[in-house]
Amino acid sequence: MARKIAAGNWKMNGGSAALSELTALAEATAGATAEIIICPPATLLSRASDATKDTPIAIGGQDCHTASAGAHTGDISTEMLTDAGAMSVILGHSERRTDHGETDALVCAKAETALSANLTAIVCIGETLEEREAGQTLAVAGRQLAASVPASATGATCVVAYEPVWAIGTGKVPTLEQIAEVHDFLRAELTTRFGAEIAEGISLLYGGSVKSSNAADIFAVSNVDGALVGGASLKAADFAPIVTALSNS
Ligand code: 13P
């Protein structure tokens, strides 16, 4: 069985003042059974790890380099993430694919680096609106999945987040049928590639305009094992009900 995971991606948001949200989140989710991961900006990783030390909240990064150290201005290595207390890292988010031209091959290489460093790789895939309207959703998802998820992936080390680009930060959410179609397809593709035992252990998260008002419905969809949440993860009051909905699903 795949782990139930509620992951928050703070993106390029939050300074010192945001750390109090972690304490509030821990209090508001006490007793929750779903795994909770918060991925703050790199500047907050160490302090976020300290702030969540005695709580079930795990901290993750938002990107990593494939090298362990060196002349890569502005980048962050898996060693640095681990040193700062991170347990996981988001890779291949559509904003990085767009803003930084990240390819499937690079995302796969980063995921391999993350796995070698014992970080859980949260690999993001998803189609643009143009691709969906052209009827290419499954083709794109299948291609990205095959090329971005490393051969060494297991349920313990790798999570896949399906985030339709057009649903990110827009308030637009696919229908539950559309989410089910993609998630069922992803599970089938993983099964073909890795076999049922590994495929069923890989958590499939949905991401894109998840809110407390739609979370329970999304978590009831087949092959949805959790969510990767942007805007609604910034405030404990918004994210805690999503964690609770997942725990109750
Ligand atoms: P929103 O939840 O703000 O739509 O962002 C989703 C996302 O990109 C998470 O990685």
Structural class: alpha/beta
Helix content: 40-55%
What fraction strand?
Answer: 15-25%
Give the biggest beta sheet.
8 strands, parallel, barrel
How far apart are the first and last residues' alpha carbons, in Å? 14 Å
The low-confidence parts are none
Rg of Cα set: 17 Å
Q: Roughly what is the average pLDDT, rounded to an integer?
A: 97
Shape: globular
Per DSSP, the total helix count is 11
Number of strands: 8
Question: Cofactors and ligands present?
Answer: 1,3-dihydroxyacetonephosphate
Main sheet: strand order: 1-2-3-4-5-6-7-8
What letter string, H or E per element, gives the SSE order?
A: EHEHEHEHHEHHEHHEHEH
Give an overview of the whole structure.
The chain has 249 residues and is an alpha/beta fold. Helix content is 42%, strand content 16%. The protein is built from 11 helices and 8 strands. The protein has helices at residues 19-28, 45-51, 78-83, 94-99, 104-116, 129-133, 137-148, 176-194, 196-201, 212-219, 236-247; strands spanning 5-9, 35-39, 57-61, 88-91, 120-125, 158-162, 203-207, 226-229. Strands 1-2-3-4-5-6-7-8 form an 8-stranded parallel barrel, surrounded by 7 helices. Helix 5 packs across helix 7, helix 7 (137-148) runs parallel beside helix 8 and helix 10 (212-219) runs parallel beside helix 11. The radius of gyration is 17 Å and the shape is globular. The protein starts with a strand and ends with a helix. The model has no long low-confidence stretch (mean pLDDT 97). Bound molecules: 1,3-dihydroxyacetonephosphate. The site of 1,3-dihydroxyacetonephosphate has 14 residues, from strand 8.
